[in-house]
Amino acid sequence: MSVFLEPFAIPLFEDSTVVDDFDCSSVFAAGFSPMDGGDPFADHHHHQTLMSSAVMSTQVVPDQPPAEVGKRRFDADDEAAGVSRSSKRRRRRARSSTSCSPSDSGGGEGSEAEAGERGGGRSVWVRERSTEWWDRMSDPACPEADFRRAFRMPRAVFDKLCGDLGAAVAKEDTTLRAAVPVPQRVAVCVWRLATGEPLREVSRHFGLGISTCHNIVLQVCAALTAVLLSRVVRWPDSPAAAASRFQALSGIPGVVGAVHTEHIPIVAPRENAGEYFDRRLTDRNQKATYSVAVQAVVDADGAFTDVCIGHPGSLSDAAVLEKSALHAQCEAGLLLGDDGHGQPLWLVGGASYPLTSWMLVPCTHPNLTWAHDNLNERVACARAPALRAFRRLRARWRCLQRRAKVKLSELPNMLGACCVLHNLCERSGEELDADVDLLPHDKLVDDGVITGNAGCSSAQQTDRDRMAHVVLHAGNA
Question: Which Pfam families match (predicted)?
Fold first, then answer.
């Protein structure tokens, strides 16, 4: 876990002892002062005596270290001037306090808060920032439409989210300042993910420091992933009910989820950049692009039921699937089997996924029959909720529309938080506003590597052919 620091406090004044370089003019000034009416010619002999004593003091020990030589030289200077070092230090501190006082200089944007009597009565300077925008949004009288437009969710969902994360993100007050309240901390993170605005804009809207906003976003994203990901992104409680919804949508019996892998652009990492180089996005964007893969299983309502985040973008969709826990669980028969009536359960995927005993993909071999063409159309209908879910995910949380400028170690938490918030909005029936643009269909495509018929057994092809005929006859009936 990262250590998140509270908002920083800068001491206004620091104790310091500045020792000036030795200057002969200071020794000469000690001999006479024009303000005192002294005669420089009468004190000439005294000046010569002071100069000789200062020079003699530097030659007492010829092999003495330079630091000691300088110290003795300053002692001789102070003694000749008749001024002690402590009194000089007090005068210097008094001048600094007088010249730097906020009350004398107009105060600026800051105010001083006393930090106690320790340390010679030091004070802490805190910049005052406007919280007008957040005060208006947090007011219960704020219109619901304005709140939804700002945070992409209704106030009821936001309040429940704050209650679920309260224990994980709350901070205690300190002697210097009060802690940022939980609703404001959650709002900082949600607004940052929803708008994708830079941290300086987050700071301006919420009246917090830039570094404070950065730490809050990281902490809330980590809490969303650790506390709510397993509760919100979960496998269907009733696979048979999920299959019936897909059958009504596509006509294919036994489908419980649609699989899709999306690549999120990132800034080129400092280490192992070649593993994250995305050739498909590079060819499409006409510039070098790096990405991480997000694989998800989506139900018929557009909610995520399983996610796999963080694999390098250079991997194909089939490679990401093979490395995911979903593949291991399906191969072991832990997620898919039958619906209790002898009907096998399936996942559907695009042509970039392999045909297996639990994954149904389109037919890609030449000379397709009518049954195969019909099956491909039905598979496309079954995959539509997955493509629509990713379009809505990236449209609602605009931070995913541009290159993610966070560390690779922090990126899974941010992407997991977006998936959690997506499910909360989808299951609450929240619709996107009319001014929120969805990504075009061509922005969400498979990686272009056709593996649907590669490496599959004859038994798997026979099962798909049987399914094609079943779907064809069911459609004609």
Answer: DDE_Tnp_4
